[in-house]
């Protein structure tokens, strides 16, 4: 394992000085109240040269250097800046963790060779951070605790991967005991015992050390000398699958950015195919030369690995980003990365009848191919007899049926593409699909859920169409209106009591006279969850003199549930 520690000793002041101007050349310090007293918490190099240090009272600092520029510290902004710096380091490895309050820890196992070796990697990180206005120290070691200590307390910045335990102990021996990261009281007790450096601890028996300073001291010592594994917690999980491109000169033109994304999608496909999976969540990350990071995320309604479709989704998201706040390339993007953050099992797909992918996707491809089968037979059957060809065509119908069955439990491929493209523009949660529910009340008979989600489990209403009802011996469900109102609209109606249809009714200030009707269809709310004010409904399909057809119901049974039953229009045919 190889860990790289980045120490930012002046992060708070660097954050302020990155605004520009001549502030970097002037003594500058940040202060905050500590137990009611104003104290210096961070200084820049110019202030440090004038003997202004953290912990000093603000009054003493001003007396020492009256021209000192002061500003109140903002810990939340410092934390946000550290997160941004950690995210920027993901250009070197996806495993970047915060080492608060002033550092970043990277797991660079196997990554250094991409940058010309470990020394070149440290040099590039230091150079890029300096160009962005950060004072930084870096170190690389087999364990994170040792890398952190070297970056803060030593001029040695690399412990080789092949170093033996004796070499690691020698590298740690010259470090001060503060490198252990223990509480101030424990460090003070060690100092009183004459223990100044890590080598002093390594030379002592372990049992007395544990008895006097606690097991925590030995655990920290073992982590520092890489005797135990000290894991880090990356800000983001490493992507399941990833492809990236690096450029010596940043990309600024949209055409170049899109062309690179298309190549990355091509590179991602074999990685997904090798594991038999498809992407469900995709993220394109754009690392700008000046350290800014842009992210474009999109989801899919089904596992996907086709480069053309992946690129189409990303292009939709880029278009939306440009409309919102613009994809500001600045001086250019020098690293582009495409990640499949979430994947699902994806069975290999075989084009029907040996057609090419574009042919099999065309409507009616099966019908077009049938004469070819009928005349030549399949590669497995050259006999050409009639019965054999009938079996082959039946197989084609079976294939089509299996495709439609898949469409019932998920989205059909063409519909999935539309949902994905709309989701890229609007967000997948905003693209809804209606599913039937096991409910007779019209307003509860369907549920709107995100189209990209799996279909609900089989609590759907039975198929009671006329043909299905005849087969099963049920009475068919009466026809339903093409337009169902979200809320039924009240009407004034004249009807024959107690259960006759409306003879005439007034709706939206217009009077309608009934010339034909069907009904009633009585629908009662479910007794196990019906609210107190829910009554039985009698629905009528009513036609007026102009030929308009309404779906009207009377709410409540006269004399049983209510004394006066109101009427409502619920839909239009």
TrEMBL record:
Concerning CDD domains, the annotation shows: PolY_like
Which cofactor(s) are needed, names only?
Mg(2+)
> Which residues does the UniProt record annotate as the domain UmuC?
26-149
Q: Which UniProt keywords apply?
A: DNA damage
Which is one GO molecular function term here? damaged DNA binding
Pfam families recorded for this chain? Answer: IMS (PF00817), IMS_C (PF11799)
Q: List residues of the DNA polymerase Y-family little finger domain.
A: 242-324
Q: What does this protein do?
A: Poorly processive, error-prone DNA polymerase involved in untargeted mutagenesis. Copies undamaged DNA at stalled replication forks, which arise in vivo from mismatched or misaligned primer ends. These misaligned primers can be extended by PolIV. Exhibits no 3'-5' exonuclease (proofreading) activity. May be involved in translesional synthesis, in conjunction with the beta clamp from PolIII.
Protein name, UniProt field = DNA-directed DNA polymerase
Look up and give the organism this protein is from.
Answer: Methylocystis heyeri
